[in-house]
Design brief:
This protein has 1012 residues and is α/β, with parallel strands linked by helices. The chain is 43% helix and 13% strand. It has 45 helices and 27 strands. The strands form six sheets. Strands 13, 14, 15, 16, 17, 18, 19 and 20 form an eight-stranded antiparallel β-sheet that branches. Strand 19 and strand 20 form a beta hairpin. Helix 15 runs antiparallel to helix 16 (469-488), helix 22 (604-620) packs antiparallel against helix 25 (652-661) and helix 35 packs across helix 45 (999-1011). 53% of the residues are buried.
């Protein structure tokens, strides 16, 4: 039986007292001390893991000021703070053992857009893509780019002085900061912007004034040494930018330059006024293919000379991983293979600006490329041009996903971030990288490379196993060697992603005198080392840094989980913290539960982290997790007692359950996540073990047994509907089971609709007697529990369509699919159902007749969950989706004349993630039939099987529909709306008030009209 896990890392008394005082002082935001919430913020996109004492979510700048003002009281001197945004840091930038100030939940307002003057004012929690989405209607954009732009906050970008593609033209974040509003360690507010030397304060009024005067004086006094020591590089990111606080003639001073790149060690930035630029009128991308990665690197200076706006590169390892990912379907046409050539490097060269200028620059480059290809020069083997802005965006999305894609590398060693953002002068990049590769090869390490070759920045992620203590030691050795190598080439180890725990390399880079100045500046702002301590530098004479490269890593905890358990939970262990599940866009299917709650425990990353800790704690209790998964539940009496006492004693398993219950099981994570973390899979495993100790809610049995009970109810559908649909019954079901808006059974039933039809009366022996040559004319219709019994009209229409197309439909007898049981964690039952269904479907598959199921969620269970549950015992049967079957038959089907009909396909989360080409499939099919079928990019509708019917989820279900689907549904004529997923159609019927058609019903209409 699952044991009680009472371990929860109690808060230190001083932090408890601080949080009580903060609440009493009128803090308006959220204060979260749950162990689960702390675990979710204990990691970022790095190898490190620091458990914070608490997470607080301020509502506004006043809340931040209050938090630091209360913290400034003498009794709270030991309380430390770290500001956090998207949590995308690659070197522990915002991790802390103190208080996390998470600005992303509430402080995400765009305060003002001044299009005429070209600036915006934002709160620190605004996400970069969110800002650009708001600026686009004004013809403007915030230009610094980065691969995590759909989840990285502007506060985080300022903290690390972030930049990315196109930085040679567009610069770094600090180049666009006009002014900052920050809260100092004493809780006072400071506004910083560029001022004339004559406007410098006298330093007698406030902490902000004293800091301003002192920093100005120190940087002026050391100006010669600063200019000598600081390399003239586009990406020279120091942490404290002593060089650019003064302009060249020392007539203007800007303290914001010190704060940008300070990683929250000096102050907490709460608002920013930023410069924004006009969107380029024209964009064009040339994708250049090379015979080697070295060729791509050595060609980069020529591309910069061609006046390219952006030059990005990826190596063959990243390209090959992209080919295996969901994203490849969107870019494959523009990175096609070159016959007879191997593509081992790719440069993506963008030109942006006025149309004529862009075309001229691109044409000149292409002429030169043609000459180089003809002369086999520079390793160029081919190129392709992309002019469409949408296509260019998709190619960049592939490049941006490179970080996460590397995490999908097979084996225990995974490419990780620790030396991934080195920067050297661009002219030295190729030689530097060759030596870097030799360094990694000497340690027999695998790695992938990609980056911004125009700026001399290349991201290199060596593959190490952090569960192996020897590999952890190797990380430090390689880190030291890379730091020395970058200095040899006049570069820097932290050229883009911030310094984080790598502050120990600072003295060698800056020298003793300048490093001492950095320490003095830290002392001015934060004399007691309370703002993100352990990062960049410590105050003067305060002792060694709190953190360094050897600081506590996630691997220290992960290696406490036995190898065989890690292997049983690969999705849990493989999550690398990339954070793509925090994608802000409501039009992305990734992860609806996080979008609707804003709580990171309700994200794939959060759930994977909580599960890792759960597995670790079970091992600490001496539990064999694999044996526990196979064990029988405790006795009913024992489970009743445990459930009654559930609220009387802490059990970490309840924290995990809180997170898992919020999951919609939409499986968007399994397709959208770069490492394909499948939360519903380990969620079902967790449910199975959790309910070995505690009683299941009654609604779980209702859902888990629906495939059995529906077969009985359909024998008397009117009676069953009356019993379930009257007001009293609905009230009882709601109160007793927590279930609402249950659908009514179809009347007439499918059997009644097909009474006397030749498709009924399945007879295997009769089918076996059909000559093999004739079997392709048959279509075996696989039933599912939702469409066959609750939307029988759809199955009936599919059978009619099959007939109309000249084929012979055969309705297979209903066999439970098992998805409802799997969703609720009835894994033993699911395995039995899967085995029974597989045996039947393999027997039928031997006929060689195509099998088709109309619902994507149910059909995809055969392909995924059945393989996990049964392995080789699943067999090789294949159930197709309607679009897959139609595509294969399309060449034999008559082309219809243009009808002028237009349709819009609304995708199902599971389908669009697992089968990303589905929209193109329907578009092609409808075009063949003389109609137009467009698709819309949407997130989750909020139903997700039975999720939206459970009273606990009702408000979230409705909020998700309103967030993503409602406007699109209301703006599209009802007769044009096509929805392939049963649960999505159910949600539209419930909240939109009408039954939407499945695409096959629209196709039936088109063929019927053509034949009329």
């Amino acid at each position: 039986m699952l044991p009680l896990l009472s371990h929860q890392q109690a808060l230190e008394p001083v932090y408890l007292q601080y949080l009580t005082s903060l609440k009493d002082a009128g803090f308006a935001g959220d204060i979260d001390t749950r162990y689960s919430a702390r675990m979710a913020q204990a990691t970022d996109n790095s190898v490190y893991q620091f458990l914070p004492q608490a997470v607080i979510y301020p509502k506004n700048s006043a809340d931040v000021a209050l938090a630091l003002r209360v913290g400034a009281q003498p009794q709270f001197e030991k309380v430390v703070f770290s500001a956090r945004g998207g949590g995308t840091g690659t070197n522990g930038q915002s991790l802390t053992h103190g208080i996390v100030l998470d600005l992303s939940r509430h402080m995400n307002r765009i305060i003002e857009i001044n299009a005429a003057e070209g600036w915006v004012k934002v709160e620190a929690g605004v996400i970069k893509d969110q800002l650009n989405d708001a600026l686009r209607p004004h013809g403007l954009f915030f230009s610094p780019d980065l691969s995590t732009s759909n989840r990285a906050t502007l506060g985080g970008m300022i903290a690390t002085d972030a930049s990315g593609a196109g930085s040679l033209v567009y610069g770094k974040t600090s180049d666009h900061v006009l002014s900052l509003k920050s809260v100092l360690v004493d809780g006072s507010v400071m506004v910083s912007d560029e001022i004339a030397v004559s406007a410098l304060p006298d330093g007698s009024q406030s902490l902000a004034d004293r800091i301003t005067v002192e920093v100005a004086q120190r940087c002026a006094d050391k100006r010669a040494l600063i200019l000598e020591r600081f390399p003239d590089m586009n990406r020279f990111l120091t942490g404290y930018d002593l060089k650019h606080v003064w302009n060249d003639d020392l007539s203007k001073f800007n303290l914001s330059r010190i704060l940008a790149g300070a990683e929250g060690t000096l102050a907490v930035v709460t608002e920013a006024k930023l410069n924004v630029l006009p969107l380029p009128k024209s964009r064009l991308m040339v994708n250049i293919k090379y015979d080697s990665f070295e060729s791509a690197l050595r060609h980069a200076p020529d591309l910069v000379k061609a006046n390219a706006t952006v030059v990005e590169t990826v190596d063959s390892k990243v390209l090959n991983l992209a080919r295996e990912d969901i994203i490849w379907h969107s870019v494959s046409d523009y990175i096609q293979a070159v016959p007879g050539k191997e593509i081992d490097g790719l440069n993506m060269v963008e030109f942006a600006g006025d149309e004529q200028d862009v075309e001229q620059r691109a044409e000149a480059l292409c002429m030169r490329l043609e000459q180089q290809i003809a002369g086999t020069e520079k390793g160029v083997v081919g190129y392709q041009i992309a002019r469409d802005a949408g296509v260019i965006a998709k190619i960049y999305a592939m490049r941006k996903k490179a970080v996460g894609l590397l995490g999908a590398t097979k084996g225990r060693r995974k490419p990780i971030a620790f030396a991934e953002d080195t920067a050297v002068p661009p002219e030295s990049l190729a030689d530097y990288i060759m030596e870097f590769r030799a360094l990694l090869d000497s340690h027999k390490l695998q790695y992938g490379m990609f980056g911004h070759v125009d700026a001399g920045v290349l991201h290199v992620r060596p593959a190490l196993d952090m569960c192996d203590p020897e590999d952890e030691k190797l990380l430090k050795q390689v880190s030291d060697e890379v730091a020395a190598l970058t200095r040899k080439y006049g570069g820097l180890m932290w050229g883009e992603h911030g310094k984080g725990v790598r502050g120990e390399y600072g003295p060698a880079v800056f020298g003793e005198e300048l490093y001492g100045e950095l320490e003095q500046i830290k002392s001015l702002f934060d004399p007691h080392n309370r703002l993100n301590p352990g990062k960049l530098v410590a105050p003067k004479d305060s002792g060694p840094m709190v953190y360094n490269v050897d600081s506590t890593k996630r691997g220290k905890f992960d290696r406490q989980i036995p190898v065989n358990v890690r292997d049983a939970f690969p999705d849990v262990m493989d999550c690398n913290g990339n954070g793509l599940c925090f994608n802000y866009s409501r039009f992305s299917p990734m992860c609806p539960s996080f979008k609707v709650t804003g709580d990171r425990i309700h994200s794939p990353k959060g759930r994977a982290g909580l599960m890792r800790e759960w597995l670790r704690l079970l091992e600490a209790e001496g539990v064999d997790v694999n044996a526990l998964a196979r064990a029988k539940p405790a006795s009913l009496w024992q489970r009743m007692q445990n459930t009654i006492n559930k609220d009387k004693e802490y059990d970490y398993s309840h924290d995990v359950m809180e997170s898992m219950k919020g999951c919609l099981a939409c499986k968007a994570c399994s397709g959208q996540c770069p490492v394909r973390v499948d939360v519903p899979k380990f969620r079902a495993q967790f449910f199975n073990m959790y309910y070995g100790r505690y009683l299941r809610p009654a609604k779980d049995y209702l859902v888990g047994s629906i495939e059995d009970s529906v077969q009985l109810m359909v024998k008397a559908p009117k009676l069953a509907n009356f019993a379930a649909q009257n007001s009293l019954s609905k009230w009882v079901i709601k109160q007793a089971l927590g279930y609402v808006d249950a659908p009514a059974l179809s009347v007439p039933t499918l059997s009644q609709m097909l009474d006397g039809h030749h498709c009924r009366g399945y007879d295997l022996e009769a089918l076996q007697k059909i000559p093999v040559a004739e079997r392709a004319q048959y279509v075996l219709v696989v039933q599912d529990p939702f469409n066959s019994f609750y939307d029988a009209e759809l199955v009936f229409h599919f059978i009619r369509l099959v007939e109309l197309l000249g084929y012979k439909p055969v309705l297979l007898p209903f066999k439970p699919n098992g998805k409802p049981a799997h969703i609720k964690g009835f894994l033993d039952k699911f395995a039995r159902i899967a085995k029974s269904a597989s045996d039947f479907l393999n027997q039928v598959a031997a006929l060689g007749m195509p099998m088709v199921g109309v619902d994507p969620a149910l059909v995809l269970v055969y392909r995924d969950e059945y393989k996990v549950a049964l392995g080789a015992a699943r067999g090789n049967f294949d159930v197709q989706l309607p679009n897959e079957w139609l595509l294969q038959r399309l060449p034999q089907l008559p082309t219809l004349a243009p009808s002028g009909r237009k349709f819009t396909w609304f995708s199902h989360c599971t389908e669009s993630s697992a089968k990303p080409n589905t929209a193109k499939d329907w578009q092609y099919i409808f075009a063949h039939l003389g109609a137009e079928c467009n698709s819309v990019n949407l997130g989750c509708c909020g139903m997700a099987g039975t999720y939206g019917h459970e009273i606990d989820n009702l408000e979230r279900s409705k909020a998700l529909y309103e967030m993503s689907w409602q406007q699109a549904i209301e703006n599209t004529p009802k007769e044009q709306i096509l929805i392939s997923g049963y649960s999505c159609r159910s949600q539209v019927k419930r909240l939109g008030g009408f039954r939407a058609k499945h695409p096959i019903e629209a196709i039936l209409e088109l063929y019927s009209a053509a034949n009329a």
